[in-house]
Structure formats: structure tokens, C-alpha cells
Amino acid sequence: MHALFLSGIENFFIFAGCAYCIFFLYMKNFVFLLVGLWGLILPALACTSAVVSGRATPDGRPLLWKHRDTDFLKNHVEFVRGEKFDFIAVVNSEDFHRKREAWIGTNSAGFALMNTQSYNLVEVKDGEERGEANGRAIYRALEICATVDDFRHYLDTLAKPSRIEANFGVIDAQGGAMMFEVDYYTYKIYDANDPEVAPAGYVARTNFSVSGQYGPGAGVVRYQEAVRVLDLLAASHSVTPQRIFNDLARSFHNCVLGIDLRRPPFTGTGASGWFVDQDFISRSSTSCSVVVQGVKPDESASLTTMWTVLGYPPTGVAVPLWVDETLPPMVCMDNSLGTSPLSYESLQLKDKVFSLKVGMGSERYMHWALLYNEKGDGYMQRLAPVEEENFRQAESLLEQWRRKNKVEREEMQALYRKLGKSMDLVNKLTRL
Predict the structure, then answer these.
(1) Are 425 and 382 in contact, with CB atoms under 8 Å apart?
(2) pTM for this prediction
(3) Is 139 helix (H, G, I), strand (E, B) or coil?
């Protein structure tokens, strides 16, 4: 194993040296340098997201997606008995009980909410924490809001300045699907159901706001990639949770560079096996990717499903969750691990991918061949069938529950036990 690693390092430096020479020989690649330098100065609190109306999905159900980048990589799912509504949400394992913050979740009324940090809505003063109230706002809204209009009222009643700077994506059990761009005093609404606002039936955001005025914001390259993929899917009404995970959360296409790492020459034996982690949707700072699948207006809100990947999505698998106090242990806090088992094991695998430690900045290099290669034994490739089976089993049950218009609790718990086997392969890969 040691010899194989040294060989990989040698290939990496050969590749890097060649790339370095080519860069200076061809000035047309100057954009690569600009993108790289820009990435070094951007904050880590960055996310990619979309609110998708039923117009863009095959079954008419809305979707809410958040791909979270953060300094708090250890995440778990918490069940909360709220003031009006119970909810489940992705939270920071480290400080949840102290801060009571949530980052994406759904409640017993079928209301779901998430945010992405915006960097161009507020002119932040020295020493002021940007968007310090964002997570608290999500927690509070999940326990008191049932609809998009309720969330609008909640924003209206907040004391000002609210200390909120965020793009909030919202769906509800009535088919509502909106993006709110919120600053300390005001907000703008972008309705994914309005053809004039969202011709393709969705609204995507990264870390800038369309209504923003303070600087250019951040995440423009990731936004371009999200739009590129969503436009194609929405045109055929084929935006689904599974396609979002496969085509977006595990995308390694860079619009600026015009490359896709899953295509030659990056997958062949002639490649170094290493690449720079720059402006892909999944990055070393990613802590989870979640898609909330809503319901149709005549369906029970209990059928709202939160498809959840904890950890680094290329080394994780999606599991379905419903608002219930009984959650599968693999997504819950494990005090011995300091996070959920699913998050812990995925991050262990990610650390193998980002294993290069040879100097300042080297942590940006990823061992791409460990994730994806022409032999088909990369982490992503080996985990894909596991996730596909999770979707197959869950969707089969969902079809039955939708006919009954209710979630059968015993069947849900039995499914959780089956899906617990998702951990087996992740554990095995971690220990190789």
C-alpha cells in the first residue's frame, strides 16, 4: 500500500509539473489562475441550492435541494418537538444543543426550509458576523410555519435589524415553491411556480443574491453548473431527488475550464489520478446534500420525504427520512463519534481522497482516481448501487403509502433497519 501511494505521489508531481509548464506556454489558460486565486479568498460558508416547482418534476411534487458547504463538517439529523409543529433537520453536531440552529429541514405540516449564505446583500461592518441569525431563523420557522405565506409573515414580524443575510428556499404541502432573498430589513421573493420568474420551473442560488448590491457575491461558477444541469432536466420534467444527487451533488464538471473529470482523459491510465478541488459543486468543505420531496395539495403532509446524504456526497449514500421521533441510528448523533455514523464514515473516506500533505495549499488536491476511475472501483462507483437500492426500496413503499395517503410507521421503521445495511459497504471501504 505504501509503495502504491508513493507511486501516486510521483505521478501527481509529474502531472502538476506538466500542467504548470503548459499554463505558462498558453496564456489562454490564464482564467485557470484567476479561478484558483478567487477560490482561495472565498469564505468556506458556501452552498448550492434550488427550489423546484412541480412544473419541472415528473410527478408534480415540488423539491427543495441544499448542498451544504461549511466549517462544521460533522452533521447529524435531529428530531425536534416544536412549539406548533415537530420537525427534522440537519444540524451541526458540535453545537446544536447550545445554539439551536438548523440548516435544512421539514416539519409535520409539510413545510420545508433551507438557506444559502449570501455575500452581497449586506455591507457587513468590521467584527460583525455575516448572517449570524440564519440558522436560528430556520429552526424557529420550522416549528411555527406551515406555508410559504406563514414564512413571509414570520419575516415581517422579526425585529430589525434581523441579522439575517441569506437566500431561503421554501416549499409547502400546498405546492408552494419560493426563494426569498433576505437582508437585515427587507426581502425579495422569486416564485418557482411563476413562468415569468422561473421559465424552467425552478430557482437556483449559490452565494449571491440577484437583488444584492454589495459586491459580486460568490459561487458564480457553481451557479452556472447548477443552471446548466437543471435546465436540461427541467426541459424534460425529469428533476428528481436521485438525478439531483447523481448529476449535481456528485458533479465534477467545471463550466469555466470546460472539463468533466468523469470523462477522458481524466479517467484513463495515462492520467495522474490527482486533480485540484476547485469550483466543483462537491468540495472538501461539503458536509451534506439534502433533497426534500414535497407532496401534492391533496396528499398527507406526512408523506413529505427528506432524502439525506450526510458527509461528502461522493463518499456517501442517500437515505429517506420522515418527520418522526424514531430516526435510523446512522443519521443520529453518536456521542462516541462526535457526529452521526453516516457523516463520520463518509468523512473518513473523504480524508483518504484529500490525503496529500506536502506543503501549504496541498490540501486542495484530491486523489480523483480513488473516487472514480476506468476500472469502475472508485468510491463513487462502488457506492452507487447501494444508493440505487435505497431509492428502489423507499420508492416502492412510498407508492403504497400514497395510495393509503399515510405513512405506515411500522413499515417505515422496518425500512430504516434494512437501509442500515447501507453502512456496511461504507464501513468496509473506510477500513481498506
Answers:
(1) yes
(2) 0.89
(3) helix
Q: Which domains does the chain have, with CATH numbers?
A: 36-430 (3.60.60.10)
Beta-bridge partners for 321: 306
Is residue 301 within 8 Å of residue 292, measured between CB atoms?
A: no
Return the half-sphere exposure (C-beta side, CA atoms, 13 A cut-off) of residue 19: 14
User: CA of 22: how far to CAs of 15, 224, 359, in Å?
Assistant: 11, 26, 22
Q: Is 134 helix (H, G, I), strand (E, B) or coil?
A: helix
Q: Which amino acid is at 58?
A: P
- 159 and 165 in contact (C-beta within 8 Å)? no
Cell readout for 348 is: 473518513
Which helix (H) or strand (E) is 260 found in, with range?
strand 259-260
pLDDT tens track for 137-159: 999 999 999 999 999 999 999 99
Q: What angle do CA 89, 389, 260 make, to 5 degrees?
A: 80
How does DSSP classify residue 84? S
Rounded Cα distance between 210 and 196, Å, is 15
Contacts of 74 (CB under 8 A, 6+ apart): 92, 93, 94, 287, 338, 339, 343, 344, 347
